[in-house]
Design brief:
351 residues; mainly alpha; 12 helices; globular
Length: 351
């Protein structure tokens, strides 16, 4: 008669291969060759739309009429990528987006142009976050960070190419609100809902939310009710930074959006609740996509500001990543390390 071993701790079983923890749709296209060909066409569309939209801010010898059709192509690519990645219905969202893009490019009315620019910014900011993959290492997190910023920057060019007559503050607020709402809707299932958050992750989520509210409330309070000396000091600091470095880092990106991107993709490699951290990364990508919406914005100044924000945000994110991904106790170190969480490939549906 066999006897169970006495004493000792129960070890985590790492022999079972990991599986994705969410049900996914069956592939809409059964032929792998056809799927790869369509993916290649979408990629070419993204490159062509980005290059064509870039002519709106870079002085090159190209016809002026190419800008808005390029932005329309880019908006359709964003819609295809986000709908496919989020498991949505392509036959519903694709025709709606294509119709808005075509009408805005042909009719060029103020309402259509503003709507197309807003949709482009929202789709680009959310897809930039959803296209990332879990990262187990620092270099992997940096790779996903750079990829998300590249997608968001292409959305910035698309918004600039629409050249829509909008109020920047109102436009930025609308894009930020809609992007956060869309991200929360998609992440609700990907992150197992609020009930799936552990105590530590819930504390992180509430802390980041509190920081967001504090930064927004404090900045609004200083602009409206701050003393003249304080407002003047901030203005002089911004002017000095602009004259010295030709760009000013954006605090929302440095302290909230970009660090959340690093922490979120790293936490997703262990638990899918890391998706909830990535909701706040949408704040950074949304602010980035709207940075060139006004025709009076200087591309060089915005580019340098984005560079400074991305570098500082990366440093803050790596520091927070080291803090939040530490083992909670020495007891976990005595167990076999759990298997790494897996997700579908980068261009496959997440649900």
């Amino acid at each position: 008669m066999s006897r169970a071993p006495k004493g000792g701790r129960r070890r985590l079983d790492a022999s079972v291969p990991p599986e994705y923890d969410l049900p996914t749709r069956e592939p809409r296209i059964e032929s792998p060759r056809t799927a790869r060909f369509l993916m290649f066409l979408v990629f070419l569309g993204w490159v062509a739309g980005t290059v064509g939209s870039g002519t709106a801010i870079v002085a090159v010898d190209t016809p002026a009429w190419i800008e808005r059709p390029s932005a329309a192509l880019l908006m359709v690519v964003f819609a295809i990528g986000l709908t496919h990645r989020g498991g949505g219905h392509m036959r519903i969202w694709m025709p709606m987006t294509a119709a808005l893009a075509a009408l805005a490019a042909v009719l060029e009315t103020n309402v259509l142009l503003a709507s197309a620019a807003a949709v482009t910014a929202v789709l680009a900011s959310v897809w930039a976050v959803l296209v990332t993959r879990p990262a187990t290492t620092v270099f992997g997190a940096i790779r996903e960070y750079v990829l998300a910023l590249l997608v968001a920057l292409s959305g910035t060019l698309g918004v600039a190419a629409w050249n829509a007559p909008v109020n920047y503050q109102r436009f930025n607020l609308i894009v930020l609100t809609v992007s956060l709402g869309l991200a929360i809707t998609l992440v609700w299932n990907l992150g197992a809902g609020l009930h799936g958050l552990g105590r530590q992750n819930l504390a992180i989520l509430l802390g980041v939310a509190g920081l967001v509210m504090l930064v927004i409330a404090y900045s609004s309070f200083v602009r409206t009710h701050g003393s003249q000396s304080l407002v003047e000091a901030f203005r002089e600091l911004v002017v000095w930074t602009r004259q010295t470095f030709h760009g000013v880092p954006r605090p929302v990106e440095v302290l909230i959006g970009f660090p959340a991107l690093i922490v979120g993709v790293s936490l997703r490699s262990k638990r899918r609740e890391g998706w909830w951290i990535l909701v706040f990364a949408v704040i950074g990508t949304a602010v980035l996509t709207t940075s060139l919406v006004t025709p009076g914005a200087y591309p060089t100044y915005i580019g340098l500001s984005t560079l400074y924000s991305s570098v500082l945000g990366l440093i803050v994110g790596l520091v927070l990543r080291r803090q939040f991904l530490k083992e909670p106790s020495s007891r976990a170190a005595r167990a076999i390390a759990p298997v790494v969480r897996v997700e579908p490939p980068r261009f496959a549906a997440l649900k």
